[in-house]
Amino acid sequence: MKNDMSRAADSQHQSPKLKSKLMARIKPQALLIQSKKKKGPTRISITTIVMCNLIIALIALSLVATYRYWSRRSPDQSGSDLSTLEDIGGFVKKYDLPGYAILNTSKGPIMVELFKDGSPEVVDRFLDLCQKGHFKGMPFSHVIKHYVIKGGGSQGLGAAEDWISKGKLRSQLVTRPKHEAFMLGTTKNRLDDKGFELVITTAPIPDLNDKLIVFGRVIKGEDVVQEIEEVDTDEHYRPKSSVGITGVILKREI
Ligand SMILES: *[C@@H]1O[C@H](CO)[C@@H](O)[C@H](O)[C@H]1NC(C)=O
């Protein structure tokens, strides 16, 4: 630079032709200096631009992320809201579960208490079937005096007849702790929709829990049960005249 300046100073004492020649030689260097001077701010501005771009990109990314988060969350949230409701529903259900059912029959109403705590699964199943109207119009397919009345399930007694006849015999022979009469139960391994059998005992039966899943008991309408028990049957315990359940009313309390 010093060199350039001295040269420039020298150039004042030189001919205009040489001066212009020298100027032409200086010019690129001056331009270089200028460009160097320019490059400083240019480099800063590039950095600034890059930074700005980065910030914009970050903002955009965060916006996209936020949008995605919320758009993903909103159905999730409604889902979790639903599940919360369901949970609350389940919670409420556990406590508000109908504890009683009135079986309307062609002979009158039979009120039963459901053992929600003792047999929760079967009670759930029973309530579910009640809500589906499964028992509406269900005839008592088998009536065995001083033993049980049974509705639903298969038309043939099958295994039930077996345990009924055996049980009946045994109940006469064995003096074991007996279940009270008027218990509400269903035959084991028949919890599917079609096979769900409703059994009401009309006498104390020993080993009842071996044969039935007891899930309730009659608390009102024992006389109705006995009336049904009195209907004439054929040799296969099938009532000669139709008697059945006309409807079920579920009650939380009585
Ligand atoms: C049950 O019987 C009562 C009285 O007979 C009647 O008012 C009610 O509507 C019946 N309900 C069903 C579900 O059958």
UniProtKB/TrEMBL annotation:
<comment type="similarity">
    <text>Belongs to the cyclophilin-type PPIase family.</text>
</comment>
<dbReference type="Pfam" id="PF00160">
    <property type="entry name" value="Pro_isomerase"/>
</dbReference>
<feature type="transmembrane region" description="Helical">
    <location>
        <begin position="44"/>
        <end position="70"/>
    </location>
</feature>
<keyword id="KW-0472">Membrane</keyword>
<keyword id="KW-0809">Transit peptide</keyword>
<keyword id="KW-0812">Transmembrane</keyword>
<dbReference type="InterPro" id="IPR029000">
    <property type="entry name" value="Cyclophilin-like_dom_sf"/>
</dbReference>
<dbReference type="InterPro" id="IPR002130">
    <property type="entry name" value="Cyclophilin-type_PPIase_dom"/>
</dbReference>
<keyword id="KW-0413">Isomerase</keyword>
<comment type="function">
    <text>PPIases accelerate the folding of proteins. It catalyzes the cis-trans isomerization of proline imidic peptide bonds in oligopeptides.</text>
</comment>
<dbReference type="GO" id="GO:0003755">
    <property type="term" value="F:peptidyl-prolyl cis-trans isomerase activity"/>
</dbReference>
<feature type="domain" description="PPIase cyclophilin-type">
    <location>
        <begin position="97"/>
        <end position="250"/>
    </location>
</feature>
<keyword id="KW-0697">Rotamase</keyword>
<keyword id="KW-1133">Transmembrane helix</keyword>
<keyword id="KW-0143">Chaperone</keyword>
<protein>
    <recommendedName>
        <fullName>Peptidyl-prolyl cis-trans isomerase</fullName>
        <ecNumber>5.2.1.8</ecNumber>
    </recommendedName>
</protein>
